[in-house]
Each structure stands twice: as C-alpha cells, then as structure tokens.
Amino acid sequence: MARTIAYRRAHQDPAASGVEIEPRMIILHHTGGGSADATWRYFDRPTIESARKTIADAGDLNVSSQFLVDRDGTIFRLMPETSMARHCVGLNHVAIGVENVGDLDQHPLTDAQVEADAALVRHLKARFPAITHLIGHHEYLAMEGHPYFLERDPKYRTRKADPGPAFMTKVRARVADLGLEGPLVR
Ligand SMILES: [Zn+2]
User: Fold this and answer.
1) pLDDT per residue over 64-74, tens digit each?
2) What is the value of pTM for the model shown?
3) In angstroms, what is the span from residue 52 Cα to ligand 1's centroid?
4) Are the C-beta atoms of residues 43 and 31 closer than 8 Å to each other?
5) Residue pair 11/153 in contact by the 8 Å Cβ criterion
6) What is the CA(163)–ligand 1 centre distance, in A?
7) pLDDT tens digits for range 5-20
8) 3-class secondary structure for the chain?
9) Which residues, in sequence order, are CB contacts of 65 under 8 Å at separation 6+?
10) In angstroms, what is the span from residue 178 Cα to ligand 1's centroid?
C-alpha cells in the first residue's frame, strides 16, 4: 500500500493519499508467458524485478492487474476493481487491467479468452457505468492528450505490443453494443 501511494505521488498527484481509483476504462493485456501460475508468482511480491530497468527506474512498486484470464477462459480476480494496479503508464489511476495468459507467438490468445474478456468487460461496464473506454495496452500511447492520461514524468513511456489488434477486434465485436470508445484517433 505504501508503495502504491508513493507511485501515485511520483507519477500522478503529489498529494495522493490513498490507493482507491474510480474506474473509467478497461485495458486488456497479455502476460507474455504460458501459465497462470507463473504470472501469479510474478505478481505476488511487492517490488518490481530490477531487470525491468525502464519500469524499475520509475518506481519499485511491482506490476499488477485486477484480473487475470487463463487460457481456458477462467477469470481470476486478483485485486478489488477500485484499488490501483500498476499495468499501464499514464492510466493506472483510472483503468482496470485485465491480463490474459499468453503471447503473440508461442501461446496465442485463445477463443475462450476472447469470450471471457468480452463477458468481463460487459460485467464491469454494468457495475461501473462511468467506464467509457476499452483499449489494448498496445494502444495506450494514443491516449496521451486525453484528460484521463496523467504521467508527471514526460520521459517515462514504454512501447507495448500486447495484446495486439486481432484480439482487440474480436473482443470489441462482442461488446459493440456497449458503445465503449477506443484510443484517440489522430
Ligand atoms: Zn500489457
């Protein structure tokens, strides 16, 4: 908790005093690995591994997400939706993160994950009507300039490829009726 508050003070708001967020968007990811167990062990420690230098330099709070979706579509809730996780530069204070076990090469995301993510997005939008956006992590830089985007360090940006446009197209097709916005189009 103290690390999360320290992260918020450094990156979002020097006066931050809590870890609560009001969800306004959902960001989908893939983990870059093949098992939910490995992801769980990776998340289940307070500090980031120092090998991830760009991220570690920006604060020692470990990466995290509120949800993890296994390859068979099983959804694990790892944190309350309204507690801040560290999963996306600039948007953690407004975004619920959904990690999917897999990658773009050896473990491509499954149809079961498409269905699970779509069902989860539908559930979250019903529970938090203030949610307006659904994006993939690879799209997040296009949110810079949107009022939601808040990062005090102008040099702290990471390049992301997850979960990729094909996965986002499939999930969006299943929740099109919700009217969620994507990244800003320039
Ligand atoms: Zn990601």
Assistant:
1) 999 999 999 99
2) 0.95
3) 14
4) no
5) yes
6) 7
7) 999 999 999 999 899 9
8) CHHHHHHHHHHCCCCCCCCECCCCEEEEEECCCCCHHHHHHHHCCCECCCCCHHHHHCCCECCCCCEEECCCCCEEECCCCCECCCCCCCCCCCEEEEEECCCCCCCCCCHHHHHHHHHHHHHHHHHCCCCCEEEEHHHHHHHECECCCCCCCCCCCCCCCCCCHHHHHHHHHHCHHHCCECCCCC
9) 29, 43, 78, 79, 85, 87, 97, 98, 99
10) 23
**155, amino acid identity:** K
CATH no., domain 2-178: 3.40.80.10
In the chain, domain spans: 2-178
